[in-house]
């Protein structure tokens, strides 16, 4: 068990959280949530001992082992991949190294022999004979090929390092597992494997993530940091979100009768109880939901952006026709070949690929920012496009206030008009006078969304729109795209975003296109599609 008592963290007058008293017990997975800057990652760092709290203490059961997902991709450059994973079990590695050092001694003494015998016994008790094979199996499950296991960490790519460090955190069945954004740079197959691993994990997990589908799949509880406090709730992220929204609505409706409120609450509980029966989580959530009292859930301090896209005109009959589109990367990797399809009215197409750069290249080509090796594509004359690129650095090179920054993209130059669009994205008052060159990644994306809303386009193109955004902005963006009635092409690593928005999936492969009119989950579960995918990639083809 892991517990915190009277924990607080202050930076001068600023209080991140105060008087936190929580017990985290085995068999549960706790999603740590809160607005940007609330202290989610900082809380994990306090638990791991990386930083000290202002007051209070962290306690673990004697002998318990904590494992932390490391974010420093260069910390293990001196080691090979397999050794890096095994270093996740620090005590085992200490035994191995001391044992090896003794055996390497040229003057092996009787005392050395006795110590070596002790270490051999410890080695066996800790599963040392299976240590390498377990590490190799974990790496393979996470998509790290066997030929990479003996390579130095400096010789593998950044995406492969992410998987190795995740394997290190999971290795050796730790008693307490701390994961900060574990799904970053993982493909959908690896995320699904991790979801299943954590659903079966019998010890204690604390996770920070902006991936709502992941939080819903693995979390039995939510620990919400708000009002400078941390409050624990049973259920996953969606349950917490919808119950908090219900609490907010009921509090704001002073005239609503008590009986009406009780009926609304009961319907809410019944709906989530039914959904809980489909979950892999072995929890008694239904009983917990039946005890829910909305008054126990405080209205949040979180603010949700107002994202509203309004086109100047409807789309005509001719939308987008792509024919024979092909692209090879500078290093000779075939991104995609012979891509042919047409858009229909109401299409919201999720564009996906095993090679992430292929999707960006496709969007860059159809928005006339890049050329294809072979290309034929044509937009209808009625189509106006609004594009949110994956890399927005080119838009923030000049130092100017956000009002002036957004004004350059607006036909209407009045400050009050521009401020209105900034305000929708939570840049109000002095926030709208911030300089464009000092914005965080999330603030830049929110500015780019303001710019998109100004265009009044009837076709929206989004390349990883949820990158850098907090959960509140992701939720607002997701809702806006669900409500969008016109055409869209987009990519997103956010599973919930893709599943709820897309009505058609187009996959770009090195040997052609897979095009299915279905939801994202249906696409992933379709065995015929998955067999076709395996054939078409050929483990990524070079020209």
The first-level CATH class of the domain at 308-384 and 456-543 is given as Alpha Beta
Gyration radius (Cα, Å) is 26 Å
Fourth-tier CATH superfamily name of the domain at 308-384 and 456-543: P-loop containing nucleotide triphosphate hydrolases
CATH topology of the domain at 308-384 and 456-543: Rossmann fold
Q: Provide a count of the helices.
A: 19
What CATH architecture label of the domain at 308-384 and 456-543 applies?
3-Layer(aba) Sandwich
The coarse overall form would be: globular
Q: What would you call the structural class?
A: alpha/beta
The total count of strands amounts to 18
What is the topology, as strand order, of the major beta sheet? 5-6-7-3-8-9
Q: Largest sheet at a glance?
A: 6 strands, mixed
Portion of residues within helices? 25-40%
Protein architecture, described:
- It is a single chain.
- The protein is of the alpha/beta class.
- Among the domains are: about 245-295, no CATH class; about 310-385 and about 455-543, 3-Layer(aba) Sandwich (Rossmann fold), CATH 3.40.50.300; about 400-455.
- Helices cover about 40% and strands about 20% of the residues.
- The protein contains 19 helices and 18 strands.
- The chain has helices at about 40-50, 80-85, 90-105, 110-125, 130-140, 160-170, 190-200, 210-220, 235-250, 260-275, 285-290, 355-365, 400-405, 415-425, 440-455, 470-485, 495-500, 520-525, 525-535, and strands at about 1-10, 15-25, 30-35, 55-60, 65-70, 175-180, 205-210, 220-225, 230-235, 320-330, 335-340, 350, 375-380, 385-390, 460-465, 485-490, 505-510, 510-515.
- It has a six-stranded mixed beta sheet, with helices on both faces.
- A hairpin with a 2-residue loop joins strand 17 and strand 18 (about 510-515).
- Helix 3 (about 90-105) packs antiparallel against helix 4 (about 110-125) and helix 9 (about 235-250) runs antiparallel to helix 10.
- The longest helix is centred in the middle third of the chain and has 19 residues, at about 260-275.
- It is globular and about 90 Å long.
- The model is unreliable at about 275-290 (pLDDT under 50).
